Amino acid sequence: HVIDAVMLPPGFTPPSPDMSIPSIPSIAQKTADLSTLLKALTTADLVDTLSGKGPFTVFAPTNAAFSALPTSELKYLLKTKAALTEVLEYHVASGSVLSSALKNGEKIKTLEGADVNVTITKKDTVTTVMINKATVKTADVKAANGVVHIVDQVLTPPGFSVPSIPAVATSAGLKTLVKAVTAAKLGSVLEGKGPFTVFAPTDAAFSNLPKGVLDALLQPGNIKDLVKVLEYHVVAGELVSAELKNGEHVKTLEEQDVTVTISGSTVSIDKAKVTKADVYAGNGVVHVIDAVMLPPGFTPPSPD
After folding, report:
1. Is-contact 220 304, C-beta < 8 A?
2. Sign of CA dihedral 243, 244, 246, 250
3. H or E element in which residue 81 lies
4. In this structure, are residues 218 and 183 in contact, taking their beta carbons and an 8 Å threshold?
5. Which residues of the chain have pLDDT under 70?
């Protein structure tokens, strides 16, 4: 007799094959030593991608691998989505590649676009697999949509570097500030270890100075005045917006204080409004402001 349905015995619970093997993000969630990776994937909005059909091969750095990064570099990555995404995608390849299929000298293209290099060495009965300079500590953790190889270092894409404050200012299009920092010979200072907090005026802010003042400040003979103005925009230490308090006085490298005013969602430094807060660099943080601040008692050089 032909019937149009499958009959299940009373009390029978069918298996759930889709739930028996976790997805790649679920593996990270269930593995204590991958909690930083899970946090990074969440921050970069890659959890949904790596929960998809795939399949994917993921080289998954341990918590210790992330902790081995310089503190400022790790903070920059976790606070800068574009950079974090670039680094994480360098740990992911399309296709499911088990360790047994890896070949010495093989190059594997990642989602970031660049290749990782496979090195396989054998000593006695021990086989060591390396991805770039990272050693695979646990291979072939199978997922429903691919495979995970746990590695002991964070892989860095070719050409990737964590920018210092001058590089961040350049990327943010703060051309006049970069020009002024160069003229004042402060680039090496702001590329240093820091950390620093920089209140960074926009190009329009510099243009709004009284006529001729900017040109005068940029003249080689007025470098001391330019340094004074710029150092009034720099604080030793990293002050993110959430740490600023209304009425707070913050000492600058120029040795005088700027005053923080918070009104609703508007944050002002002296009379300059913060238009973009918390732009992270490897050695500090930048807050973009809409006016150039002049130190108390400062007299700008006279235009020629």
Report:
1. no
2. positive
3. helix 81-89
4. yes
5. 1-7, 11-20, 304
Backbone angles phi, psi at 69, to 5 degrees: -70, 150
For position 21, what pLDDT does the model report?
A: 79
Global pTM reads 0.82
Encode pLDDT of 128-140 as tens digits. 999 999 999 999 9
pLDDT at 14: 57
- The confidence score (pLDDT) of residue 201 equals 98
Q: How large is the angle between the packed helices 35-43 and 71-79, nearest 10 degrees? A: 40
